[in-house]
Specification:
400 residues, alpha/beta, Nucleotidyltransferase, domain 5, 2 domains, 40% helix
């Protein structure tokens, strides 16, 4: 299907929004285009660097009651967020001389009932009219949206869409697969029985990584996200993440320190290897036999996951690691500070498992050794933005 408009995907985060043009090729797969724009919220005069989100309990209570009342400070901060997103989209449209565009947007936070606004956000303002504001700014710039923004999606699901529909996506041509992306936070996606599955639709038996807590009390997300790994190293060295950022010390630099014998770096990566392996094993056993309780739930009021589900006895064809965690593992392949300990932990868990049967153990560990080919590194450098655009395209096709 040939289009007379430009497809754009926008990935909003805690500090900035990243926008890309996207090339449409349904037969070969979607890919990033030639135009990119990144806008920091701090570039806009409404931005308040001292902004503090409304207490999350209040946010959730208002959301539950249907009476969401953003504060004046939230409204002001929200203007910076919407201005940044609209400006990124407009810049790409102008760079490409596109008069018509189709746009998809992903943002963190819980969405409003119509899915076009943000009704609760842990680290930012509530923006119940988020899509409306962006559409207005795009229109005022003289650019036409071929259809309104259908909804605001989540980066985790968009990572899955990217892996399924992109030209180099790792969900393509597999039946069952788990995706774990580690950037600022952790993003999970699943393909089961040949189709993408929304984790919100299977929350009665599958728990997102950020919802789980390790035996030593930290969130699992700490061990599998770039910022989390920094924070663990910071705890060992009495530094904040801001301190480490100022020194340009990120996970790759922590790995270098580990190679040079730095005790704190070695301890950090040992824990990353251990809990990344346990998380992957938890995914493997949950798919095969349902929830086993290897991790505690961060929210004590969350409904305990079920052991019954319709995919039991299934195994993963591959396990995809993406975003900055994927970059770190790619650099670590076969090293002694992260990759080898991770594989050894995972091999031990599977080999000694009382949950998996012989066929499942042999699937993952033929000849008694974990098959490293089961772990694949994502090739998508901008999976959430790509997925946002793909989602917009799929919604557009439904409208035709």
């Amino acid at each position: 299907m040939k289009s007379d408009f430009l497809l754009i995907g926008a990935d909003g985060g805690a500090t900035k929004v990243n926008c890309w043009s996207i090339e449409i090729d349904e037969s070969e797969g979607f890919s990033l285009g030639s135009f990119q724009a990144e806008k920091a919220y701090s570039e806009y005069p409404e931005y308040d660097p001292l902004f503090k989100p409304v207490d999350l309990k209040i946010q959730l209570a208002e959301r539950e009651s249907g009476q969401i009342k953003p504060t004046e400070k939230e409204i002001q901060q929200g203007q910076a967020y919407t201005s940044a997103c609209a400006a990124g989209i407009i810049e790409i449209a102008r760079k490409s001389n596109a008069a018509k565009i189709l746009a998809g947007i992903g943002m963190p936070g819980l969405k409003t009932g119509n899915k076009r606004g943000i009704s609760a956000m842990a680290n930012g303002p509530r923006m119940i009219d988020y899509a409306d504001r962006i559409e207005k700014l795009i229109s005022e710039a003289g650019i036409e949206l071929v259809i309104p923004i259908a909804h605001i999606g989540s980066d985790a699901y968009y990572c899955g869409l990217g892996e399924e529909y992109a030209r180099v996506g790792q969900f393509r041509n597999v039946r069952n697969s788990y995706y774990l992306g580690g950037g600022t936070g952790a993003a999970d996606a699943l393909k089961l029985d040949g189709r993408l599955v929304s984790l919100d639709d299977i929350k009665d038996w599958f728990v997102k990584a950020w919802e789980m807590k390790c035996p030593e009390g930290r969130s699992v997300e700490k061990y599998v996200s770039s910022r989390g790994i920094q924070s663990i190293f910071g705890e060992f060295t009495n530094q904040t993440v801001a301190d480490l950022n100022a020194q340009s010390i990120y996970p790759p630099q922590i790995r270098e320190k580990a190679f040079n014998g730095d005790t704190a770096a070695l301890e950090t990566l040992e824990k990353v290897a251990k809990y990344l392996a346990l998380l992957i094993y938890e995914r493997i056993t949950t798919l095969f036999a349902g929830w086993q309780g290897y991790f505690e739930l961060l929210n004590p009021n969350r409904t305990v996951p079920q052991t019954e589900h319709s995919y039991k006895k299934s195994v993963f064809d591959n396990i995809i690691i993406g975003q900055r965690l994927g970059d770190l593992l790619r650099e670590s392949k076969n090293d002694h500070v992260l990759w080898n300990p991770f594989i050894q932990y995972l091999n031990m868990l599977i080999q000694e498992s009382s949950i998996l049967d012989d066929a499942a153990r042999n699937h993952y560990c033929p000849m008694g050794q974990f098959s490293e080919e089961r772990i694949v590194i994502s090739k998508l450098r901008e999976a959430p933005a790509l997925g946002a655009g793909i989602d917009a395209w799929l919604n557009y096709k439904e409208e035709l």
